[in-house]
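We include the pair:
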Amino acid sequence: MSWFRLFALAAPGALLLASMSVHAQTATSPAPAQPSTKPPADAAPAAAPSRAFRFGVATAPAKPAGTIRLMSYNIENLFDEHDDPALTGRFDDKDMTKPAAHRAAAADAIRRANPDVIALQEVESLQALLWFRDEFLSDMGYAHVVSLDSGDSRGIENSVLSRFPLKDAKVWPGLPLGGTHPQSSEFRGEPIEFRRSPLRVTIEVPDAAKPDVAAYSLTLFVVHQKSGRDNNYWRNREAMKTVELAKELLDLDPNYQIAILGDLNCQPGEQPYRTFISGGFVDAFADRVKGDPDWITHESGRVIDHILLSPGAAGRVVPQTRFVLGVPARPEGVDWRTTPPPEGYASDHYPVVLDLSIADK
């Protein structure tokens, strides 16, 4: 049974593009079988191996030839040194600059994973993203960049860094999602809208023999859904609308290659997650073992960052290349509001990564 079939059965604006030129096979099984951890009867129990990181793996797997490596990463408050006059009061950004050590650690994580395309969340602006790229990643080939205003009151956006051309970027800030906020919400009675609009953008991987022709195209919906324990109703509305927008493309071509990825702020099994799955999208990590630290995506011990694929794209996943990359985190059980982050800290989220085959089967 194929990896995709296994998952299918298991699972119920204005465009601102920048580039350096302007500015300066799918495996037929799930993950490889793990060797037995049961020792021989006459052997003494082995000591549990120490982990380099609380969550995620220390080393990225090799990227096979003929694939593109896709990463989703909530980089946590990538604000630059410039004071945005549009952000005032409790959203004033003058003291929000992401520390240089944290920026360097985030860049190091990107280098360790070496993705071709990075879907980022919590980026202040195109200017901030270019600043970060040029400071730490100028030799990584990320010549194609998009970051658009998502409509968020904190000023954060969804963004993409890519080694391949990007086109047709679009956002829907303030798009009504239907219904009104309940009485328990601070927005009681107001229409429900995207908290942060998804960013839709298409990657075009050039043909090696014909650089002007795309060998493979993949459309991303980079998402950062509403946070907060009591906001599942809001996240579910956002999920419903994102599925609707993606299905407009699938109605044109059922084999359309789509990835919905980012910080969904919900775990597998919760209603917003189920909305994506019932909408026909495949969780590329659906066979993760619940609670396994290798697959945790957030410092809190939750799995809230996801890569969800249309059926056509899901069939291209190389299963053994799926991973969550480990980076330093605060100790378990501490209050993040009062506990300083450890040395090497980059973000409270961890990069979620996979490889897609670009060749048609």
Remarks:
- The chain has six helices and 15 strands.
- The mean pLDDT is 87.
- The first strand starts at residue 17 and ends at 19.
